[in-house]
Inverse folding.
């Protein structure tokens, strides 16, 4: 046999066939007593049920954390977690924060310098000095 | 005179100690709760109801210190896998169901069953073996069909390699991970049904593999006996790999299991369990929603992944194979011509060589030596031939199974790869 196959694994392209939301679980922590949790308690009572019903892909837990600031901790499919402290925030500010955590991919926040990031090869190809008419010096 | 309470004696004997549960056979455990209820009913004089036995609800934790979040049914800890009705209370399972956008026709109980590996629960009525077998055949079918229609000239070796790249256990392990499936540290009746359950201490004995064990397996392994591609189609598994029992090094690795954190053996078990779960989810969709839903799911989660087939090829004698190909297709004999070059006498020369058949250029490549450039150009030419594709939109045979399908237009069928030696 002159042809052999190298072992290769196909790579995933989330969103091309199916889209899987990258946020897996969210843990909401509140304190019953402390003033910094006032907005969080209001959020859990008023806005949170609707938000949780609209996002069934995410597993939510709500737990007390007495004498501490309220926190939202999100876990992602890539194994990372992101936490946002929501002390002294109003319920609608907290809703913004929880939406930010839901929409995040879980990757580290990096500066994007290129307009396009792709796993596909460039359509134009890599420039070659041996093709074309060349440059007359 | 104080009355002897015989019923108390028997009930004392019937209460199972938590430690003793492990040695009880599985079938006995499943019916243990029933038999206990029956024993209570047979009492002749039940003066006062017995206080609830702590042992029945024992779930391995210290309840006064750590009150349970969920009330686990009695004797759950003695079961090998969680009870099906607990699937309805699992938040993880509901989230997974929504994350995969599964139809409401797929019940949570079936999804929970798809996450129980045969190594966790040996009972095929509670583990995912049967679902996985259905799912595996479906995934293999759709991947093979897609590859054959989209790349009709692929050599058999490459076809097997591409099959493994899309539908192999490594790939499906990644698919299941990308669904956010997590695994329990150890299987048992008390774990959340939304976690993948498999045992690291033993292998499931369920047969989910395909292919036959060859009689000449020892010779193939020891002396590398030739086993041709046709016999691989018949005897070997769906990826053309020889079926063998991988028990030789396992004993040593198993012994190291407790002393080190994860080794080759445990990783292989985890990979196997994850890929089996991915198969089983497809099997569950097929069972409850039918053929089209399963096909759409496979297309969305398996076929949508990307694999660069040109990176699979390894050629041994590309120039000879190319001349055989040209002879077979009645092209003019291929000739390698130097298109351009630079720095022939320098440390880094570059030669661009093209392969021509008559006036047609079949391929070209650049390399630092003439010989290499010619070989690379021949490889590029062969890849260009083998990777011919009628396009991404080519219809596959299973498209004809829907009721209002347009008439079938015959797909391209190639005469096959070049036979050379």
């Amino acid at each position: 046999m002159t042809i052999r196959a190298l072992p290769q694994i196909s790579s995933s392209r989330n969103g091309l066939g199916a889209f899987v939301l990258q946020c897996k679980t969210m843990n909401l922590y509140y304190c019953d007593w402390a003033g910094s949790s006032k907005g969080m308690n209001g959020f859990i009572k008023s806005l949170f049920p609707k938000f949780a019903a609209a996002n069934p892909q995410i597993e939510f837990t709500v737990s007390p954390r007495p004498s501490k600031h309220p926190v939202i901790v999100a876990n992602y499919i890539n194994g990372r977690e992101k936490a946002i402290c929501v002390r002294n925030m109003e319920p609608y500010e907290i809703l913004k924060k929880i939406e930010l955590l839901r929409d995040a991919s879980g990757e580290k926040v990096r500066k994007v310098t290129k307009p396009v990031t792709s796993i596909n090869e460039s359509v134009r190809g890599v420039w070659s000095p041996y093709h074309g008419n060349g440059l007359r010096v | 005179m104080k009355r002897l309470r015989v019923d108390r004696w028997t009930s004392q004997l019937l209460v199972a100690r938590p430690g003793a549960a492990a040695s009880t056979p599985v079938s006995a455990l499943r019916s243990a709760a029933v038999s206990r209820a029956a024993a209570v009913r047979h009492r002749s004089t039940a003066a006062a109801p017995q206080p609830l036995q702590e042992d029945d609800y024992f779930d391995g934790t210290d309840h006064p210190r750590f009150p349970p979040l969920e009330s686990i049914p009695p004797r759950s800890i003695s079961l090998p896998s969680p009870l099906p009705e607990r699937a309805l209370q699992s938040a993880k399972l509901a989230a997974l169901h929504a994350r995969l956008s599964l139809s409401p026709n797929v019940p949570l109980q079936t999804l929970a069953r798809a996450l129980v590996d045969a190594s966790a629960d040996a009972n095929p009525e509670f583990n995912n073996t049967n679902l996985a077998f259905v799912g595996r055949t479906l995934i293999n079918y759709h991947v093979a069909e897609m590859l054959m229609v989209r790349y009709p000239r692929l050599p058999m070796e490459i076809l097997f390699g591409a099959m493994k790249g899309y539908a192999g256990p490594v790939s499906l392990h990644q698919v299941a991970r990308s669904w956010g499936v997590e695994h329990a540290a150890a299987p048992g009746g008390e774990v959340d049904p939304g976690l993948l359950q498999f045992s690291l201490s033993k292998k499931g004995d369920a047969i989910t593999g395909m292919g036959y064990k060859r009689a000449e397996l020892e010779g193939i392994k020891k002396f590398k006996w030739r086993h041709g591609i046709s016999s691989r189609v018949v005897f070997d598994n769906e990826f053309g790999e020889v079926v063998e029992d991988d028990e030789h090094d396992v004993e040593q690795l198993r012994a190291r299991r407790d002393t080190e954190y994860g080794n080759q053996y445990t990783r292989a078990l985890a990979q196997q369990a994850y890929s089996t779960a991915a198969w089983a989810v497809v099997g569950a969709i097929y069972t409850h929603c039918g053929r089209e839903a399963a096909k759409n799911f496979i297309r969305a989660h398996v076929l949508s992944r990307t694999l660069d087939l040109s990176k699979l090829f390894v050629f041994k004698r590309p120039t000879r194979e190319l001349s055989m190909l040209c002879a077979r297709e009645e092209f003019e004999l291929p000739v390698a011509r130097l298109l351009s070059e630079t720095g022939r006498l320098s440390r880094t020369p570059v030669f661009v060589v093209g392969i021509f058949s008559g006036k047609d250029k079949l391929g070209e490549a650049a390399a630092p030596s003439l010989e290499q450039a010619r070989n690379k150009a021949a490889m590029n030419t062969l890849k260009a031939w083998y990777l011919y594709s009628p396009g991404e939109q080519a219809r596959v045979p299973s498209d004809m199974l829907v009721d209002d399908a347009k008439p079938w237009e015959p797909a391209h069928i190639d005469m096959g790869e070049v036979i050379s030696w």
